[in-house]
Amino acid sequence: MAKRAAFLVILLLAFQAALATSYPLTVKDELGGSLTLTHAPRRIVSMIPSDTETVCALGACGSLVGVDALSDWPKRVTSLPQLGNANAPDLEALVALKPDLVLTDEYSGLAPRLRNLGLPVYAGTPQTFDQALTFFGTLGRLLDRQSEAAVLRGRVEGQVAAVAAKVAGSSEPSVFVELDPTPYSVGPASYLGTLLAKAGGRNIVGAGMGEYPQVDPEYVVKQDPEVVLLMDAPYGESVAKAEARPGWSTLRAVEDGRVLALDRQQVDMLSRAGPRMGDAVVLLARLLHPGHF
Amino acid sequence: MARADVRRVVSRGAGLAPATASLAALAAVMLLAVGVGSVHVPPAALLSALADGLTGHLHGTVDTIVWQLRLPRVVLAALVGAALSLAGGAFQGVFRNPLADPYLLGAASGAGFGAAVVLVFAGAVPWLARLGVPLAAFGCALATVAVVTLLARRGSQLPSVALILAGVVVGSSLSAATSFLMLASRDRAAGILSWLLGSFAFASWARLLPVAALLVPSVVAILGAARALDVLQLGEESAAQLGVPVAAVRLALLAAATLATAAAVSVAGVIGFVGLVVPHAVRLAFGAGHRRLLPLAGLWGALFMVLADLFARTVVAPAEIPVGVITALVGGPFFLALLRRQQR
To answer: How far apart are CA A225 and CA A204, in angstroms?
Structure first.
């Protein structure tokens, strides 16, 4: 018995060693920029909310020294110094934190500015479900948290598979996702569109309409969705206002009371391609298939 | 009345004193601006950081903050302020019109349109947008002024009224086109708007050098034409009789002022009011002679812009207010107060 336990421990240690990052580590980011780390980062700045969540989900929350103003999950990061956002960063405060790794996006132009200042930057943040799964591994390697990254990926994939098993065979309700009342919506290829498909919903917006199309209000009425998700509810829209729109009174979603207002926390969770993607799919599946959960 | 006359005579006599005082004030304000930011830098650390930079050995985060973030920003604000103010003074002198400003001939709307086109069509490609916006803004500003000049030309003549009208009309059309671009691609609208309102947030030594290279010759050209501008104020016919080549001087001044404006706009966006208000304020305070007015307008334009940018980045820190909003909010009332005092 003891021998077997010892064997298991050795196996576990060997497994861990195989997954350990060896420094110095040089990687290329999404902008093609080169980043070299001489040791596991201990002073991390994250300028993207979903990156902040991933760092913490990998167990490296304690290494964060600063975040952008929108990073609010997990709760403990709200006590860290806030550095504006990637488009309008507080560069002085960022430099003063002496970060040994800055995580940012590839679009804002922040990465080249930081690189000019000699700071170690990784530019590139996931925009899709699959990119996020890959990014767990990338960040796991950078932070020497590769086994945690594998566990995280397994957990998210497990959540999505469990949802798929539960909703399999049941009919997919047609869904209109409203980002703002003008109305802007999401296409199937967008991040939220992907989550919707994984949760067993049928998007009334077709693939040909683009990722974030402004749709004709008549189109929504004509498609007669069974469920409406108001992602704009935290920003002033309400179920009552939506139901009072011209032509909406006879929508199936209105008649069945399935015009659903999402709160700020839920909207954030559904918008960030990070460790809570699995939770987001579960949330959507509960809203779309209440009988199965 | 007697007091005003005395003051005018005295100020005409003392040419060096106002310039020295203005230069000292500008230096003090620039030092203050380099010393203040979202990270507290004690005066001793500031001085040693400045010394480190001068000897070329940067070490530590304070050195980086002072030399790589604050100083290029302050110097850029000073350069742009001086350029806009000088260009405004030149335009006001050339057209003998107190409402003239550097954007009179469409440089701002042209630059805004160029920047908007790049942001809309290349905004998804970061490096292209970063390089393209200043280049397009600069090119479109020059092209717009060139078109306006061609439209206003009557044979070999360049009548002021035709120039101003053509500038207003072409400017309005381009502003409308920019508004359309913003509405048509709403996800880029915020980026375009913040560019249109002006900012020094992206200052760096690398961005500053090409602008400085364009600004220095234009500033020298404008300053060199000060005496001709003085004569021009007597009227074009009188100036011609006094031997000033009126057409050539006007064209050279317009070209130099436009080049300065385009360079300033390309790197900082459209910052209004400085080019209109500062030359007037200097004229009211120090007299109307261009040989004194123009250099002092440059110095005070620089000082005003450095102060405005200091407000822009500290009032709601760590967020920033577009510096163009500050110049308009502060410049307007200040200008009115000055006018009222003068009338009394």
So the answer is: 7
pLDDT of residue B34: 94
Closest-CA distance of chain B to residue A161, Å: 34
Q: Is the CB of B37 less than 8 angstroms away from the CB of A31?
A: no
**Nearest chain B CA: its distance from A92 CA (Å):** 6
* CA dist., res. B325 & res. B198, Å (int): 8
User: Which of A22, A20, A25 shows the shortest CA–CA distance to A36?
Assistant: A25
Q: H-type helices in chain A, by residue range?
A: 2-18, 49-57, 91-96, 110-116, 129-142, 146-167, 191-198, 217-223, 239-243, 252-255, 264-271, 277-288
Residues A260 and A287: beta-carbon distance below 8 Å: yes
Q: Among A144, A177, A193, which residue terminates a domain?
A: A144
Q: Is the ipTM of this complex over 0.90?
A: no
**Structural domain count of chain A:** 2
> Which is it for the CA torsion A265, A268, A272, A277, positive or negative?
positive
Domain B21-343 has CATH 1.10.3470.10: yes
Give yes or no for A40 touching B (CB within 8 A).
no
pTM of the model: 0.82
User: Is B39 in contact with A98 (Cβ distance < 8 A)?
Assistant: no
